[in-house]
Design a protein that fits this description.
This is 12576_t:CDS:1. The protein has two domains: 167 residues, no CATH class; 212 residues, Rossmann fold, CATH 3.40.50. By secondary structure, it is of the alpha/beta class. α2 packs across α6 and α2 crosses α11. The strands form two sheets. A six-stranded mixed beta sheet has the order 8-7-6-9-10-11, sandwiched between helices. A five-stranded mixed beta sheet has the order 2-1-5-3-4. The chain is built from 14 helices and eleven strands. β6, α8 and β7 form a beta-alpha-beta unit. The chain is 37% helix and 13% strand. The radius of gyration is 22 Å and the shape is globular. The structure holds guanosine-5'-triphosphate and magnesium ion (MG).
Length: 397
């Protein structure tokens, strides 16, 4: 497939340097004669992705941890992702098991521990390199590193290294790269099905925001709006969904849709059984196979426009984890509703909105603004994307 690819030349150099450094230091550490006491060991960032969550929540935690490790000159490790290499390439050994034994006597603390503790003062204003703790742990399903992009200690790094501030894209395209056998399937699907213009839909129905719903009709309506701009085009609508019923319903609605302006519209989807239990996620309601989840996410990431479900990270991560340069515009987000006759006069009655950026949303950003000290919240708000970060995710905190 032909498209202009994202280029992050400055960041790519930083990444290459990091890989060399990591490989060199880890091979020195693993030499049988290297008996270091804990004060001589390199300092670390260790991420503990929550494996019962899906990719939309595991990937941001790894990207945040990697960002902290680059900024603070610490080594990066991932703990508890036992089958990482079944799905992703590895340029350097980041399995925590490789070195964990050496760090038995080291000091450690969490920067992020889910919703129970988050050191946002450090992230927004502190200097991570001055932190004396040997191991900084992260356990999160969020993208809570967003405030570090406006931290005065690191602003220059971001301006120089990722000047367009599409930070998630730059880091995730290096750290989270699909294994060839998965990538090939996603590319083949896109090659066989994509046409002049491709709209990706992510329908998430198993996870609701409170008891609200996002009707399949609304996704279909947004596709109709997008099609108004097209003329004499072959258009593909790719549907990814978290359950069979919802997928069938939406596909049928789209197939019945009137097409205007002499466009032809082709509706496609992958064929996984989306009601089958996923052994990695367990009984969390995240069904379907891990491999097809990644194929769906990758195919979504290659679409020209995305229509995704509010409150689900899956679509947002697809938007950010995209090598397609066109993705400067953020996805269109379908908002949940209680029922369609609900209070139309409310200013916050929004059916759909277009996100400003394809950076992931930050679930805890509203919390930072509401509860952190004034300076931390004002540093966060000096981030040009703060409104974007705080708008796009579930309202629960
Ligand atoms: N194949 C496929 N799998 C999906 C799809 N939507 C959801 N899933 C599965 O369900 C998981 C959803 O978890 P996340 O990716 O974290 O998305 P989320 O909606 O934020 O869910 P939470 O983890 O509950 O916050 C995915 O990793 C997949 O395993 C889809 O469109 N296609
Ligand atoms: Mg999520």
């Amino acid at each position: 497939m032909k498209y202009t690819e994202v280029k992050n030349l400055n960041f790519d150099l930083v990444y290459e340097e990091y890989v060399k450094k990591h490989n060199r230091i880890v091979s020195e550490l693993l030499r049988p004669s290297a008996k270091l006491n804990s004060s001589e060991l390199p300092k670390l960032v260790v991420v503990e992705p929550v494996m019962t969550n899906g990719f939309g929540n595991r990937i941001p935690s790894m990207v945040c941890g990697f960002m902290y490790s680059l900024l603070s000159d610490r080594l990066f490790f991932i703990s508890g992702y036992d089958n990482f290499t079944n799905y992703f390439e590895k340029d350097f050994e980041h399995d925590w098991k490789t070195v964990a034994d050496m760090y038995e006597n080291s000091t450690s603390r969490y920067i992020h521990d889910a919703n129970s503790y988050n050191d946002f003062e450090l992230v927004a204003r502190g200097n991570l390199s001055n932190d004396e703790t040997d191991i900084l742990y992260l356990r999160t399903w969020d993208y809570p590193c967003a405030p570090i992009m406006s931290n005065p200690h690191y602003k220059e790094w971001f301006n120089k290294t990722i000047p367009d501030y599409r930070v998630f894209t730059a880091l995730s395209l290096k750290l989270i790269r699909l294994k060839q056998y998965i990538n090939k399937q996603a590319d083949a699907f896109a090659d066989n099905n994509f046409t002049d213009y491709n709209i990706g839909i992510h329908l998430r129905e198993r996870k609701t925001t409170w008891d609200m719903i996002t009707p399949p009709e609304h996704f279909c309506n947004v596709v109709k709006m997008l099609l108004l701009e097209m003329k004499n085009m072959n258009i593909t609508v790719f549907v990814a969904a978290d359950n069979n019923n919802g997928r069938n319903k939406l596909v049928n609605l789209l197939r019945e849709m009137d097409t205007y302006n002499n466009n032809t519209v082709n509706i496609v989807h992958t064929d996984d059984d989306m009601d089958a239990l996923n052994p990695v996620s367990g009984s969390t309601g995240n069904t379907g196979s891990e491999v097809v989840a990644l194929i769906d996410m990758k195919v979504l990431s290659l679409c020209d426009d995305l229509v995704i479900t509010y409150g689900s990270s899956f679509g947002f991560i697809a938007a950010g984890w995209s090598q397609k340069a066109y993705h400067r515009r953020g996805p269109l987000v379908i908002m949940p509703i209680t029922n369609s006759s609900d209070d139309f006069q409310d200013v916050d009655k929004v059916w759909v909105y277009g996100a400003v950026s394809n950076e992931p949303c930050m679930f805890l950003s509203k919390w930072v603004i509401a509860y952190e000290d004034e300076e931390t919240s004002s540093v966060f708000k000096s981030n040009p994307l703060w409104m974007h970060y705080s708008q796009c995710h579930a309202p629960t905190f």
